[in-house]
Fold Cytochrome B.
Amino acid sequence: MTSALLQKQEGREPSQTASGTVKVWDPAVRLFHWTVVSACILNLFILEEGKYWHRLTGYVVAAAIAMRIIWGFVGTKHARFADFFPTPSRVRAQIAGIIKGTEQRYIGHNPLASIMMLGLMTLLAATALTGWMTTLDAFWGDKWLEEVHGAIANGIMLLAFIHAGAAVVESWRHRENLVWSMITGRKKYENSSHRR
């Protein structure tokens, strides 16, 4: 008897385990997340701007974003943009739920986290693009492009700090370690309270 069939007979969803967790983040999503985290730490705080390793790290991020965009259409349920795209009604419902104290728990990305994720992806892509542009003869020595590149990088740093802080707050509010779930790929399964 297959594991999924056995779990169905026991009243659990196929990806739910006896330990009360459910598989949420697939390896591609987790690889993207930790690649971007590592690259941001390297390029913002460690590597020298404009040098070989800084540029190479930027190209890795560009490749990771391209992979994540493709995976957002063909990947697993919670990796797909359709699962978490932050429509105005979803965002309004979450904000209203937070204000009223009736916020639903999301297994995947919640609407506000989705805005953050898509915003960070956009800034990362813009940083990779402007960084690449600085290597072209057409923009050689143009200070304005370097300033734009730096400003976008500072925006990434600001959003990354907000994102990390929100993960800590949400971990406390929902009593689950969201950072650990991005390592293991699993989150608590609560049939009565989770929505997506």
User: Anything to note?
Assistant: The chain has one domain: 39-187.
